[in-house]
Specification:
2 helices; 39% strand; 611 residues; mainly beta; 43 strands; five-stranded parallel beta sheet
Length: 611
């Protein structure tokens, strides 16, 4: 009888301890006009008053959250809120007596303490992180610092609302000596290698971050579990954007969820302070250049509403997801990358995506140092399969001038014909090959003809070399009539009369594979049936925008529309008003005001008439 009583008592003690740890969590503040850890407690969001010690005020720098040995004073579950402004991270920043010039690379924040639970994370966040993140603080690395933030061994954490960068245009080990970073003799300069480094880390959220301009990579992370990345930009990092190839084993597990993720211009130098792109390089020159790359990994990757563009090798490279995995890509665009736009391995589902394989984008550009045009053939989309895998591409639009639009091949030699490739409701547009102007981009290439279980139908295939796969009964080989089929300015929206309109399989069919919305979130079908391709054609209907005093917000003027807004007194064009490519909109009033958040796409026409 005594043993069960002890067990219950232990459970009560554990619950009490957990409750105390949550209750005792503190919020600390950093302001540029704060004080030192001696002058301020850090527990109040207020500047240092100018005199006294232990005052109720904020610290002046994130390093004041450390003790004299460079270890955290904050505890797991605490929050560090950093006010707007610019903070030097490294040698000669405040409270860096624990740093030594000869080991300047180690002068950075230590691994963040783990939070007590996923619901009670440790946080480093910019002020306004839980609102609109209107003015994020800038944390910039110096003197060859390895990274700005470390999540080595960190579980249950949130990093949000910050700009992470450095103040140098150098790239580590670049082939051009003029922009190589100084690594041998201090002072090394205002550069850092990596924005965020992580390993053996779970239940982490990255949100509202702009990670750019580092000498090596934006994020260097592996052995992750259950990460969430929301509204994060990784851009202009000298070697790679997201580098998942770390020391030791790399495999990720759990669910890796990404939404509103922009990965661009990696493999290029970014100048400071103008942030112009230059000296783009890739593997032939000794660089790397993937937007996203990993080592051998597993995990369930869910990528939504994201963009991969202008990286000097592959855009999204998940070729090494060779362990237990599932990849889902929705409403995503990939274009202008010098290798494959998207490369995946294992069970994969791609829907409502735009893939433009203009893999010769960097050729002859002023910002190009040495990039491998159409690396590995430059096919727009590459599937790698293993035994019993199923992959699908649904309601997407693909074009390109690489070797093929789609390639599919067995990754490990174990394929036995049990693999399924489903391509339905898509638009495929071929072009003259970039590397061989005497040839045409092929539609589909399989490494083993008539071997895989191919379910291919209801596609529009135009201008591509058909090859052995051939066309299916319900495929259409006509011009799909999109808004702009020029690769550099490609716009896959459908024009009136397109054969893709109302000719696709119904939403929910193919066991639920056909989506009930399009790349931009508009519902399918809009007409009598679902349209083929990434975009549902929306009829040219103008919103009601006339009256005496008109204030316009959150209105979209669609392609193929010609609209007029008339007001007797005034028209205010406010936040969320978008005029799509191909639309013409006239605003007519005595007063026409344009506020922030208004966006007119290239190829649209805006006419303002004051009368």
């Amino acid at each position: 009888m005594g043993f069960p009583s002890c067990k219950i008592g232990l459970m009560v003690i554990v619950w009490i301890m957990a409750s105390v740890s949550v209750t005792d969590a503190n919020t600390y503040y950093v302001l540029t006009d704060g004080g030192s850890a001696t002058q301020c407690t850090g527990l109040t969001d207020a500047p240092y008053p100018g005199s006294g010690t232990n005052q109720a005020c904020a610290w002046s720098h994130p390093f004041w959250a450390l003790n004299g040995s460079g270890e955290w004073n904050i505890q797991g579950g605490d929050t560090l809120v950093i006010g707007s402004g610019s903070y030097r991270m490294g040698i000669d920043a405040p409270n860096t007596g624990w740093c030594q010039a000869e080991w300047a690379y180690s002068c950075h924040l230590p691994p963040l303490p783990s939070g007590p639970s996923p619901g009670n994370p440790t946080r480093i966040v910019g002020a306004g992180w839980d609102q609109s993140c209107a003015d994020p603080p800038e944390l910039w690395g110096v003197e060859r610092a390895w990274q700005i933030i470390s999540l080595a061994g960190t579980d249950n954490a949130t990093i949000a609302c910050m700009e992470l960068t450095d103040h140098s245009g150098c790239v580590e080990h670049h082939a051009n000596p003029a922009i190589q970073c100084e690594r041998d003799t201090p002072p090394f300069g205002d550069w850092a290698a990596i924005g965020i480094a992580a390993s053996d880390s779970s239940n982490v959220t990255l949100k509202d971050l702009n990670i750019h301009g580092f000498a090596s990579s934006g994020i260097h992370a592996g052995r992750l579990k259950d990460w969430t990345v929301l509204n994060v930009r990784i851009a202009g990092n000298g070697w790679v954007g997201w580098d998942g190839d770390i020391a030791g084993k790399d495999a990720n597990t759990g669910t890796m969820r990404f939404k509103n993720w922009t990965v661009e211009w990696n493999g290029c130098a970014e100048s400071y302070p103008h942030e112009t792109i230059n000296n783009c390089w890739a593997q032939t020159a000794g660089g790397y250049g993937d937007g996203v790359g990993t080592g051998e990994t597993g995990g369930n990757w869910v990528i939504e509403d994201s963009i991969f563009r202008y990286n000097t090798s592959d855009g999204l490279d998940l070729l090494y997801t060779r362990l237990s995995s599932q990849i889902v890509i929705r409403r995503t665009q990939s274009y202008g990358n010098a290798g494959n736009q998207i490369k995946v391995n294992g069970p994969t589902r791609i829907e409502n995506s735009l893939v433009v394989g203009n893999c010769g984008f960097f050729n002859g550009k002023s910002f190009t140092y040495n990039v491998d045009d159409c690396r590995a053939g430059g096919s727009a989309l590459a599937f790698a399969l293993r035994q019993n895998n199923a992959v699908s591409l649904i309601n997407s639009t693909l074009t390109g001038h690489g070797d093929c639009l789609i390639i599919a091949e067995c990754d490990d030699g174990t394929c036995n014909g049990s693999e399924t490739i489903t391509l339905q409701n898509n638009i495929f547009i071929g072009n003259q090959e970039f590397m061989d102007p005497n040839d045409t981009t092929c539609y589909i290439w399989f490494d083993q003809d008539n071997y895989y279980n191919a379910e291919i139908d209801y596609n529009v295939v135009y201008g591509a070399k058909i090859g052995g796969v051939g066309l299916s009964e319900n495929d259409i080989s006509q011009d799909p009539l999109i808004v702009d089929d020029t690769l550099i300015t490609f716009d896959g929206h459908l024009k009136i009369g397109s054969p893709a309109i109302d000719s696709g399989l119904a939403a929910g069919s193919l066991g639920g594979l056909i989506p009930d919305h399009d790349l931009e979130g508009f519902s399918r079908p809009h007409g009598s049936s679902v349209d083929r391709g990434a975009y549902e054609f929306l009829s040219a209907v103008c919103p009601d925008c006339s009256g005496d005093t008109v204030v316009l917000e959150n209105i979209t003027y669609l392609s193929n529309t010609t609209c007029e807004c008339t007001a007797a007194t005034s028209i205010t064009i406010g936040s969320g008003v978008t005029i799509k490519n191909g639309a013409t909109v006239t605003f007519r009033s005595k007063i026409v005001k344009i506020e922030g958040g208004f966006h007119a796409e290239g190829g649209s026409m805006v006419i303002i008439q004051k009368e």
